[in-house]
Specification:
693 residues, alpha+beta, 9-stranded mixed beta sheet, 17 helices, 28% helix
């Protein structure tokens, strides 16, 4: 394990003396609200009228003395430390605003600074580098810490709101050096701002709908080493704005390098724990290189498989080429040998079930009509459909995106699994077999899993524990989140079933989880129950689960792992001893009490011949908790739980590329993205199948 890992953190000194902040009950000019959850005993002593009052906020001018204010010496712990943090954040915002930069907050409310790019990319927009600054105290050192993260690029149009005809296309907007949401200006507390807004000085951020309206093409996905780009950007930002005498007047940063990861915080998971098993007990770590050679661990149960195509009438020529690839492979100079050979199954083309439609915008009526006229032998045959979609999943039109979902639901109700193929991508790549073969690898993998096969399983299956994953997906158009739960047994790591609910239906979720605990414990006595959750789990959500376990007489610990499915970019680490910077797979770093960064990737050694096609995923952030007092008495329990997450990240069957998020979070999110859009509940026969891949 490398001993030269570094955080994206600069340390700074504690104040040499306790600062004095000035407080008033009433708001004064230039003052800042201090919410009651930050009121320390000293504040309540200075303002006895706050006790048992309904006042929500008092106000401070921080270190600036004002008439009638009470000065209080701020201690560097507990509630008063949070006030000191508020002061430092104010200092940061003021520093960058005075320099004329756009200053806003990121999604976790930390200060975000936008630095304009010097290079002009497009005449219709200006690019900005986004950097977030997070204050924390003694999380990975003994000092206050400033976390510097690169949040990507913002594109701000050079066209003001005054020139845009359809303001429904406008959301986040830059005005002077602030950012606001144009669609929220109708809210009562925004009216004063709205009435003072100068439309010719307000510039919207470029989003997909605006880009389409102004014929700005979609950017191609970035495939380069993200660690290198990330480090280059935060290093330039730190040198230009943070490691200067002027900045050190407000945040006394010491040293000129990012903080080294202390060895006491660093550990690793043995790579063999992530080993996979294929057919005939063949084992390995790289599905991309091994699946075609070793063959899947287990075939689908039904030996009679037939497939057919659903396509537009103008797709025929490209489908003939696709069919030849699926049956014969992509040629001698490529690795793809065809569907049967690659995933080791027998299947037959079902010509009589082809469905051809004419209306690209709304093919559903034609598909329904033809589907109703077809006969299927479901008692003896498992059917699979390749749906050639005229729309990709990023198409801005909601109705176009819904077509794929409706097709999937129609066929799911018929007991037919569906594999969508993007026609535009196929049309561009189908005559480039060396390139398109990799798409066919992933299509074949997903189809095998949807048919009920097992492409691979974990080779190491020491424990017999129930692992419950709960993921979520937010529908932006209706501001509503749906959650779904996926179940798996640790002794083989294989998917067992799922359900989904609206986010506010916590009782139904608890009931579903308790049911699975009961089913599992009736077969095997688990030594613990583990829940992988997409956010921090509240006491309200945990309580009925513990009560359910007690009713079963199941006196084993319950562990909750909050797994941040969005790759952790507020705090990362990089390896100075490796040219590509990404820490080894399985490395994990403690970044707080039972909080960790876990690196899930395909780097297992120090070789410089790392395949860039595997990607450079950032770490995921994991917090571990338990409602049981003695849950962490076993010194090895944290390593066991992190190993479990690491192993479940190896079982993703939609792509051959190594994933950094476990399927216990990723699969439920995929269900929650699709199922709420169905017109009817998911059929019972589909609740233990991977149709959503």
């Amino acid at each position: 394990m490398s001993e030269n890992l570094h955080f994206n953190i600069l340390s700074f000194d504690w104040p040499t003396s306790k600062p004095i902040f000035y407080f008033t009950i009433e708001e004064t000019q230039g003052s800042h609200p201090i919410h009651k959850y930050k009121w320390s005993p000293k504040i309540l002593e200075a303002f006895p009228e706050l006790n048992n009052s309904e006042i929500e906020n008092i106000y401070t001018t921080f270190t600036t003395k004002t008439e009638g204010a009470i000065g209080i010496e701020i201690a560097m712990f507990k509630k008063e430390l949070s006030i000191y943090k508020q002061f430092l954040n104010h200092q940061l915002r003021s520093y960058f605003k005075e320099k004329g930069f756009v200053v806003t907050k990121n999604f976790i409310r930390d200060t975000q600074v936008w630095i304009p790019a010097k290079k002009v990319i497009h005449p219709l927009y200006q690019q900005y580098y986004k950097f977030s600054l997070k204050i924390q105290f003694a999380q990975v050192s003994e000092h206050p810490e400033l976390v510097i993260s690169f949040d990507g690029m913002a594109k701000v149009m050079n066209i003001s709101i005054s020139e845009i005809e359809d303001t429904m296309l406008v959301k986040r907007t830059v005005y002077k050096n602030t950012v606001f949401n144009y669609q929220k200006l109708k809210e009562p507390d925004k009216q004063d701002f709205y009435n003072s807004l100068e439309f010719d000085k307000a510039f919207p951020l470029l989003r997909r709908d605006l880009a389409k309206a102004y014929n700005i093409p979609e950017p191609t996905p970035e495939r380069s080493n993200r660690y290198r780009k990330y480090l280059d950007n935060i290093t330039s930002f730190a040198k230009g704005y943070l490691l200067t005498d002027e900045f050190k007047e407000i945040i006394p940063v010491y040293g000129n390098d990012f903080l080294k990861v202390p060895m006491k915080l660093l550990n690793g998971i043995d790579a063999r724990k992530g080993e996979l098993e294929y057919a005939k007990k063949n084992k390995g770590l790289f599905p991309k290189m091994e699946l075609g050679k070793f063959k899947p661990y287990r075939r689908p149960e039904n030996p009679n498989i037939k497939f057919f195509f659903i396509h537009h009438k103008n797709h025929q020529e490209k489908i003939r080429t696709l069919y030849s690839y699926l049956t014969e492979g992509t040629g001698k100079d490529t690795y793809y040998q065809g569907l049967e050979k690659y995933i080791n199954i027998k299947l037959k083309l079902s010509n009589e079930h082809f469905i051809e439609y004419e209306n690209s915008s709304n093919p559903i009526p034609e598909i329904i009509s033809q589907l109703e006229s077809l006969d299927f032998d479901h008692d003896n045959v498992q059917y699979a459909a390749f749906y050639i979609s005229p729309f990709d999943k990023f198409t801005p039109n909601k109705e176009d995106r819904m077509v794929y979902i409706k097709v999937k639901e129609l066929l799911l109700n018929e007991g037919i699994v569906t594999q969508a193929i993007d026609y535009n991508k196929m049309q561009n790549d189908v005559h480039k077999p060396k390139s398109y073969q990799y798409t066919l690898h992933n299509i074949s993998l997903a189809m095998h899993a949807k048919l009920g096969g097992v492409p691979w399983k974990l080779a190491v299956t020491e424990k017999k524990e129930l692992v419950i994953g709960v993921g979520a997906f937010m529908f932006q158009d209706e501001k509503r989140r749906y959650i779904a739960s996926a179940f798996s047994f640790q002794n083989n790591g294989l998917f067992r079933g799922f359900d989904y609910f609206s986010e506010n239906n916590s009782s139904a979720l608890a009931g579903s989880i308790c049911k699975k605990i009961r089913e599992f414990s009736a077969q095997i006595e688990p030594n613990k129950v583990v829940i992988h959750f997409y956010k921090d789990m509240s006491d309200k959500e945990i309580k009925p689960i513990k009560e359910g376990m007690e009713k079963l007489g199941l006196n084993v610990p319950l562990y909750i792992l909050n797994i941040n499915k969005t790759e952790a970019q507020d705090i990362i680490a990089y390896d100075k001893d490796w040219i590509e910077l990404m820490p080894k797979s399985g490395s994990f770093i403690r970044i707080g009490f039972n909080k960790f960064l876990l690196f899930n990737n395909a780097r297992y050694n120090n070789t410089n011949r790392y395949p860039a096609s595997e990607g450079y995923p950032f770490p995921i952030k994991i917090s571990i908790s338990s409602p049981d007092k003695d849950a962490f008495e076993d010194a090895d329990i944290v390593l066991e739980l992190l190993t479990q997450v690491y192993q479940f990240s190896r079982l993703y069957w939609k792509s051959l590329r190594q994933q950094n998020v476990p399927i216990t979070i990723k699969y439920p999110e995929m269900v929650a993205q699709l199922a709420p859009r169905f017109e009817a509940p998911i059929p019972e026969h589909a609740k233990d199948k991977l149709w959503f891949l």
